[in-house]
Amino acid sequence: MQTILCYGDSNTWGYTPGTGQRYPRSQRWPGVLQAVLGPGFFVIEEGLNSRTTVLDDPTRAPGKNGLPYLRPCLDSHAPLDLVLLMLGSNDLKHRFGLSAFDISLNAAALVGVIQESDAGRDSKAPPVLLLSPPHVGPFTALADLFAGAEEKSRQLSKHYQAVAQQTNCSFFDVAEVVVASPVDGVHWETEQHAALGNRLADVVRQLLHEKDGR
Fold it and tell me: Which of 55, 78, 140, 203 has the fewest CB atoms inside 10 Å of its own CB, making it the most exposed?
């Protein structure tokens, strides 16, 4: 059994655009990933609404900062064969005033925590697949919250890819397969979850195949 941790925000949690309800596990992208990979894999879903990379948000309940919880989360689910990390969309909020480059450095800090851990097999660090979040916008009700975020979101991929190269981890641009819902410009319809889960299944199989040297 190979264990995969998906560490992310509301789109990993399965937030339904417009209602704020949660999609069933089978419709959320980690659940799709689990179904496609099959019984030889265990996909752990660690999504949280409003989770940032390393930022405290004074307008949200405590615990939204993705940094303090990451290491305990890794240790809780160890041993891990792979960690999928997809955070950064909430860092685009206007209140934080960050550039796409700044956000990528925040993501790099999280990659560092994973790579410095012993939460993988044989007490080694688990490999990381860094996922660049999809583009956000156009916005409706969330326009003020994400003012200026559309263009910055389109710059994330190149900076996340640079982080992956510098930290020697794997990379995938989620914007290749996912488009945000027109309902709010941030969250995804079920078709987008299905598309990502199916696409990542191929990526994950290849990465674990390479890791095992088969």
Answer: 140
What is the per-residue pLDDT across 85-119, written as a single tens digit (0 to 9) for each? 999 999 999 999 999 999 999 999 999 999 999 99
Per-residue pLDDT of 176-197, as tens digits, reads 999 999 999 999 999 999 999 9
Whether the per-residue pLDDT at 214 is higher than 60: the answer is: no
Spatial distance between the Cα atoms of 84 and 172, rounded to a whole number of angstroms: 10
Q: What is the pTM of this model?
A: 0.96
**Residue carrying the six token digits 């390393």:** 54
Question: The tokens 């939204």 sit on which residue?
Answer: 64
Domains in the chain, ordered, with CATH?
2-212 (3.40.50.1110)
Identity at 58, one-letter amino acid code: P
